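Table S2 (text version). Query chain:
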Amino acid sequence: MPKKEKKNEKVDEFIRPDGRKYDELRPYKIRAHILKNADGSAEIRLGGNWIIAAVYGPKEHFPKFEISQDRAILNCRYHMNPYSTSERKSPKPSRREIELSKVIRNALTQSVILDDFPEMSIDVFIEVAQAEGSTRVASITAASVALADAGIPMRDMVVGCSAGKYNGHIILDVGEIEDKEGEADLPIAIMPNLRKVVLLQMDGKMTHEEFKKAFDLALKGAMQLYEEQLNALKNILESMSTLGEGEINEKK
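Corresponding structure-token output:
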């Protein structure tokens, strides 16, 4: 009996354009409390992405005719630096930036307890200093840390991650080349402790089985980034504690 030919490439041996395996996140780092003049701030480095989020508020809302008497208004602005991509973009807000501002706002609104601040507003500014794919979910992840850093009461953290389909393979954390040349992109955002999905979008086509695998991969990646969110906030608390101890020792 002739032997069956082995497949040339196994799923777990698939190497992506940047050298990652199919289920591997890009290198990541989150830092909190990085801006002196903001009430809360954070930055995320995810591969070539470099995104900064700043929170101002709660504060009195203007103009007065827009106020809500029973809850705060959460404003969100997502903006890409003109030199954040390989081709210079106009500094004016693009249609995509306006759309993503609304997408991010809707995801964060489900977590922030706005009822605690009637007739007030909370502003979230997101600046993409450098972009390399999956910026919307990275922005949500950074903005959630900035909100927590500002002391805004939240039902849960919000963390985002993407999965997709590239060259016939389901992959985690879609990079720039995979975003441009891939067959599908699946960004999600979740509240991990409440086990609630607050963002689910898809661009492209997948089978039912591919969608399930991609969603499970995105969840796995989100939980890894959630641990990094907690570490970023823990580091701030520890540094504040150290500063407090230093002041007590000086008084002695």
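Notes on Table S2: The helical segments are 95-109, 135-149, 176-181, 208-251. The domain at 15-251 is CATH 3.30.230.70 (Ribosomal Protein S5; domain 2).
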